[in-house]
Amino acid sequence: MAESSEGVSRRNRGPAAAAENRRALIDAAREIFSEQGLAAPFSAIARRAGVGQGSLYRHFPTKIELAVAVFEDNIDDLEHVARAADATLDDLFDSVVAQAKVSAAFVDAVAAARDVPAVQRIGARMISLIGALVDRGRATGALADDIGRDDVMLVVAMLARTVADAPAGEREAVARRARSVFSLGLMPRG
């Protein structure tokens, strides 16, 4: 029997535990990368997840693949927000800020791997959900007609980067200021 990070014996369930192990690894990576940054050792992630390093490497051979898996969860959350009938760009920005406050390492990882197909798929999903919110914002008069998906994607990237780069204790205030500036730039003029 194997011993987990809490010292509790666990029976190796082999392939039957693959999905559960993958989920545990993603959750552990989110926590570890948030605490230690992207340079955190894989062994710390495996230990936190309660799985062996071999299991970690089977699921995620590289850190970028693990970061992408965490970002896919983030995109799932953003898509959920955007699907709400009354969702606005402000709701999206709130969610991006919340994610950026705890995921600075992921912002760095994804920005550094723009040519990786999995990262490009995440970008396409983001553009799609932004497109729906842009259309809704224009229809309600909350968004200037000359603002497009690419403009809002740029705002999302700048917002995430600005919040992620701020010292942890200042992120909330920085997010409020950035949101205020970005919102003014997106509103209808005239």
TrEMBL record:
InterPro entries: Homeodomain-like_sf (IPR009057), HTH-type_TetR-like_transc_reg (IPR050109), HTH_TetR (IPR001647), Tet_transcr_reg_TetR-rel_C_sf (IPR036271). It comes from the Bacteria. GO terms for molecular function: DNA-binding transcription factor activity; transcription cis-regulatory region binding. The keyword DNA-binding applies. Keywords: DNA-binding. Pfam families: TetR_N (PF00440). Signal peptide: none annotated. Residues 41-60 bind DNA. Residues 19-78 form the HTH tetR-type domain. This is Helix-turn-helix domain containing protein. It comes from Microbacterium betulae.
